[in-house]
Amino acid sequence: MAITLVNPSGLPKIEAYRQVSIATGSKLVFIAGQVAWDADARTIGRGDFAAQVEQCYLNVATALAGVGGSFNDVAKLTIYAVDWTPDKMPLLLEGIARAAAKLGVTPVPPGTLLGISALSDPDHLVEVEATAVID
Hints:
By secondary structure, this protein is an alpha+beta fold. It is built from two helices and six strands; from the N terminus they run E-E-E-H-E-H-E-E.
């Protein structure tokens, strides 16, 4: 595996994800922001933030599988959430947990969460992009 996830001493030990990823692989992969579409570009979970988060993560995994990787190769995620407020955190974590359970990924790699005003489709509530490293 090209990615090792750690929580270094002196930083908060957050169970939902790790603070640092160490990449040792040879191929750097950038996954475009994934929204809650299925393969036919139909929105999954219209109005359901947790369902859309889950679908975004599953789409990242699908993209990685297409280039010979898996979610375990993800070094960093960036999450863009429409009209973000802290009260949405339980829904975000629920969607991540559901996707992680389906993908067999624990812990989740480090990420950055950005609150934004809108995405390209008004039905989309979240978008997730990834950087991965594959051996």
